[in-house]
Amino acid sequence: MPEWYAYPVGMPEPQFWDVAVVGGGPAGLAAACVAAGAGARTLVLERAVHPRYKTCGGGLVGASLAAVAALGVAGPVGAVARDRVPAATFTHDGRRRFTRRAAAPLVAMVRREEFDDVLRRAAQAAGATVRQRTTVRAVEQSATEVSLRLGDGSVVRAGTVVGADGSAGVTGRHVGVHCGQVDLGLEVELPVPGPVRRDWRGRLLVDWGPLPGSYGWVFPKDDRLTVGVIAARGHGEQTRGYLRAFLDRLGLSGIEPAEDSGHLTRCRATGSPVRRGRVLVAGDAAGLLEPWTREGISYALRSGMAAGTAAASGRLDGYEAELRRTLVPEMRAGQRLLAAFARRPGTFHAALATPPGWRAFTRFCRSGTSFAETVQRRPVGWLDAALGGFSASPP
To answer: Which residues contact 59 (CB under 8 A, 6 or more apart)?
Structure first.
């Protein structure tokens, strides 16, 4: 049996699984950890082989760290963290630069190949079977089970399926997920020499970009810098130009990237389903991410855990209720912030330089408050100024 196929040697594989998870990223592996830990016979189907590169900023905010603690993997995740960042530099299209430093780290930086592999091992330790190099081609379901047709023509049968195969995966199409916000993210991983590494250690950079709703980032990860930009889809050449200009003014354009990639992020539209019968979708497959920052790891972990709990218990309605209670209000607030930021990025930039703005930023990073709580908090002069006169329908 090859190393990447994890099922106990000498034991027959079940012909029917209680829970099958499609996708071995944070959402799918969190679901598998919870479902297997609850005693469900759980199978994970992943098309690649861990560890594998994944385009991602890799910043773990407080909500992500709380989730990995709940999964029991805080220690292993801490061991693969490449930096813990207490300082942040902000610029507005390269201008009006300022830096603020907190007394404790704001985020932990990880490489996704290492972070996801920690979660894979945790899912296996919880009792899940992880089958890699396995592609799911189609999903069919009846009143009593779900059938997954694989790339080799075989079929996996399960009582419940958790879809976590990304925004373009088959499970999201099966459920009927539709997205109202689609963005293009471009990112490079730069191997950096010692002097550059020391300059960026413990400090991230956020640049509010030239396109409406756009921004760029530099995230330090020991001997690498993750540098990227994101903007609404439909502005591909301008977004690529933004990344080139961003690298030039940071003095990083002469470094050959170890990785150079792009991806689309998709945020669910108002009323988009997260379940169809016995199939639940989580993370990117459900379009669950924070609309303003496009932060997705915490949404993947939290929705995956909720999906795993519902799938193991058989109370599938509870998954939708949990998302309405927790993630949907945060996404609604994030959409308000994105709309206001797109109109007045300079106001946002100036607000972050004030003590109330910096405190709100640090509270969010550490999850002392969510976006929903931040928008509702009074008085928050910096946010009121940014949102002044703005109103929007909830998602």
So the answer is: 85, 107, 108, 109, 204, 219, 295, 297
- Residues whose CB falls within 8 Å of the CB of residue 148, separated by 6 or more in sequence, listed in order: 20, 22, 45, 136, 138, 139, 155, 156, 157, 158, 161
Q: Counting beta carbons within 10 angstroms of the beta carbon of residue 165, is it exposed (0 to 12), middle (13 to 18) or buried (19 or more)?
A: buried
Q: Is residue 354 part of a domain?
A: no
> Within 13 A of 117's CA, how many CA atoms are on the CB side?
16
Beta strand 17-22 pairing with 42-45 = parallel
Same domain for 287 and 300 = yes
Same domain, 125 and 242: no
Q: Is the pLDDT of residue 394 over 50?
A: no
Do residue 64 and residue 132 come from a single domain?
Answer: yes
Tokens of 190: 């730069």
For residues 148 and 45, the answer to whether their CB atoms sit within 8 Å is: yes
* Strands lying side by side in the sheet with 215-221: 95-101, 87-92, 203-208, 215-221, 224-232, 179-191, 259-268
DSSP state of 286: G
| Spatial strand order in the sheet of 107-109 | 59-60, 107-109, 83-85
For residue 233, the enclosing domain spans: 83-104+180-267
Q: Tell how strand 59-60 and strand 136-141 pair up.
A: unpaired
CB of 331 closer than 8 Å to CB of 339: no
Residue range 207-229: average pLDDT? Answer: 97
Query: Can you list the positions of beta strands (E) in 155-306?
Result: 155-163, 179-191, 203-208, 215-221, 224-232, 259-268, 275-276, 279-281
Instruction: Decide: pTM greater than 0.85.
Output: yes
The H or E element containing residue 378 is: none
Residues 263 and 137 both lie in one domain: no
Task: Give domain status of residue 297, yes or no.
Answer: yes
12 — pLDDT class (breaks 50, 70, 90) = low
Does any domain span residue 9?
A: yes
Tokens of 212: 């409406």
- What is the spatial distance between Cα 161 and Cα 28, in angstroms, rounded to a whole number? 10
Number of domains in the chain: 2
* 80-98: pLDDT as tens digits: 999 999 999 999 999 999 9
301 vs 119: CA distance, rounded Å? 10
Specify whether 279 is located in the same domain as 218. Answer: no
- Going by pLDDT thresholds of 50, 70 and 90, the confidence category of residue 281 is very high
Is 393 domain-assigned?
A: no
Claim to verify: residue 118 and residue 254 sit in the same structural domain: no
Q: Identify the CATH number of the domain in which residue 93 sits.
A: 3.30.9.10
